[in-house]
Amino acid sequence: MPTFLTFFALPLIILNFISPLGAIAWLIYLGDYKILIIAAVAGLGGAFAYVIAMLPAMAILIPGGVLINKENVLIKAVGYLLLSIGGFWNYILMGAWTLFVFGYLPEAVIDRSVPYLLLAYSVSTAPFAYMASKEDRNNEGAHFATLLNQFSSATLFALLLFTDLGLTLILIIFMAVVILGYVLGLFNGLLSGFKKKLYDKND
Length: 203
Prior knowledge:
By secondary structure, the chain is mostly helical. It has nine helices and no strands. The chain starts with a helix and ends with a helix.
């Protein structure tokens, strides 16, 4: 996994822990029970919506997974291409969900209110964290995508909370983080496959 993401793993773990607790306690204090109910429904429904939204990509990912195990270099390259396309769809879904959640809360995007920002971060990351917890530990792609979702959401959270940048520039930075993360994840996956192939040959 790219070093720059593992460097942020501990701060993300802390944020993942305090964001739901802080948001719930703060919003109960403010008496905004309605948004807490909406957030709970969104957090639970988001995981199921994600599974459904990933179905079209599975038509690409499954053949890609088969092709990369072939010996023919050209066929293997086609397999990597299919996996990269399917993986990009996964990143698009995560990024779109994060933007939808933050954009749903004008208190977070416009007012930049701390409890609503904490809530937006929690809801934007919870479905994917839950799905990743069900994955095999060796599924590096899924765990990397989940970590990037948390990192990009935390970036959006920090930009809204600690800067006075305009929303357009913040959106551009967020998209750049997602795209850069995708490229690094793609490169890391190809490099891991190459290393594994060399290791198998040496054995």
